[in-house]
Specification:
single chain, mainly beta, Jelly Rolls, five-stranded antiparallel beta sheet, four-stranded antiparallel beta sheet, 9 strands
């Protein structure tokens, strides 16, 4: 990640890995939308960061896009508010509030916010020792 994007990163006052973690998603979303990063059309915050699991809250302004990319792990995308469109495997998936899509590892996909939206992205992959075993 570039230094320019790091200058807008917030400190994480609460741990991202602990025996249990609890979040008020509405409050977290309000905070994301008050930060300078929101002016760029999107903002994100990692909520959970365990060895093989990440949970990220993303806020997207209407018509913002996350360009095509792929992940090493399996992912789920849950629409919290709004309406998003995901393109993957030659298909288009429409997610509205409460909708959930799971994608296997390595699938190219992009995300488009049809209207102002928020989503929870969950990334899961095998632990490092499991990944290195053929």
């Amino acid at each position: 990640m570039s230094d320019a994007s790091n200058e807008h990163r917030r400190p994480h006052p609460q741990p991202m890995a602990a025996p249990y973690l609890e979040f008020d998603i509405a409050r977290e979303l309000e905070q994301l939308q008050r930060e300078p990063g929101w002016q760029s059309g999107q903002n994100a915050k990692t909520l959970v960061k365990y060895d093989g699991l990440r949970v990220v809250l993303l806020a997207l302004q209407a018509r913002s896009r996350i360009p095509e990319h792929r992940t090493e792990g399996q992912i789920s995308i849950q629409a919290i508010t709004g309406h998003i469109r995901i393109h993957a495997q030659g298909r288009s998936f429409e997610l509205r509030s409460g909708g959930l899509l799971a994608l296997d590892r390595g699938l190219s996909h992009d995300v488009e916010a049809i209207e102002e939206s928020a989503l929870l992205l969950t990334l899961a992959w095998p632990r490092e020792q499991e990944r290195s075993v053929p």
